[in-house]
Task: structure prediction
Amino acid sequence: MANDLDVRNPSPDYLAFWREYHLCTLTTLRPDGSPHVVPVGVTYDPEAGLARVITNKTSTKVANVQAAGEGGARVAVCQVKGGHWATLEGRAVVRTEPDLIEEAVRRYAERYERTPAPNPDRVLIEITLDRAMGRAPSTARTD
Result:
């Protein structure tokens, strides 16, 4: 059984783990229900209860989220380093507003220490979080 963490008030260790440079995965569901798992960069904003993934509007992950309809798609983002891991779950929607994309790019650049090249086809997968799990360094909660 999972021991959930507070999405909006994570432990300092869990939050620090999400601020380190780690490649993550995003899991979406294809229209047939099978999982689609791809590597992505993710930023975590506990104050807003959001995770953000910037991507190209023609990507399969975007198509999967859009196929779920207006209510969004249930997704998970995860990162792993050795025996440490962190997963965030929630409902994803595709956002196209330039100010939201700009904010997501800024956060990505801060976490990954590089600014992505300009991309006129960039969109934002915005995940409203409702679950956090993991074992970050010095965090005893596990799945």
Q: What stands out?
A: Residues 139-143 have pLDDT under 50 and may be disordered. The beta strands are 24-29, 35-40, 43-45, 50-56, 73-81, 84-95, 122-135.
